[in-house]
Every structure is written in structure tokens, then in C-alpha cells.
Specification:
single chain; about 110 residues; mainly alpha; two-stranded antiparallel sheet
Length: about 110
């Protein structure tokens, strides 16, 4: 049996996260964790933007670098994560959309159990 077929295999979620069994996550726990991940990613994205916009760096890097970052990767990441943004377009399926779909599925499962 290969490692990825082992039911007790742990999934590495990064240096700041605990490893969790990849088979034993309840849907509600997955949804909660996804919400936390989305929030953490948005927080880190804001921190990255703050680093780029700090006045001491702006004088050094110039506004065109900041403008490109805000027009491209900052916007793309924010739109991919959340529907709560001020950009004109939207993602075909944001992380928030996926979380809402999972939540609806979880609610349907709960209703079926009653």
C-alpha cells in the first residue's frame, strides 16, 4: 500500500498548522477551517498591500510597481478568495462561493438526518 492510500496518513497544512487525518474531517469542521484559511489569506493579503503602500517603500519602488500589484495579483487573489471587494469583475467561483456551497450541502445533510 502506498503512503497516500494509508487511512492514517497526515496532511501537512504548513508550519503553523497541526497535521490532521485526511479522512476523518467532518463537513462542518472542513467548512470552519476553510473560513479560517480564507480569513487568514485575506489578512496576509492586506499585510502584503500595506507593505507595498508604506510611504518609506513607495518612495523607493515607485508608484508604477504598486499600481501593477494592485491591478493584477492583489486584485486577482482578493477576487478569488471573496465576493466582498470593490473590483468591477468577479470570480467564476471564489473560495467564498465554495464555502457557501459546502455549507448548503451540510445543511441539506442535516435536514436529511432529521
Amino acid at each position: 500500500m502506498s503512503d497516500w492510500e494509508n487511512e492514517d496518513q497526515q496532511v501537512d497544512l504548513g508550519p503553523d498548522s497541526e497535521s490532521v487525518p485526511d479522512q476523518d474531517y467532518e463537513l462542518s469542521e472542513s467548512i470552519e477551517r476553510l473560513v479560517n484559511i480564507k480569513d487568514e489569506m485575506l489578512e496576509l493579503l492586506g499585510e502584503a498591500q500595506d507593505l507595498l503602500t508604506s510611504t518609506s517603500h513607495l518612495a523607493t519602488i515607485g508608484p508604477s510597481i504598486l499600481d501593477r500589484a494592485e491591478a493584477y495579483w492583489l486584485a486577482h487573489i482578493r477576487v478569488a478568495l471573496s465576493n466582498d471587494h470593490d473590483y468591477l469583475g468577479e470570480s467564476m467561483c471564489s473560495m467564498e462561493d465554495t464555502i457557501k456551497e459546502l455549507d448548503a450541502e451540510s445543511n441539506q445533510e442535516d435536514a436529511d438526518d432529521v
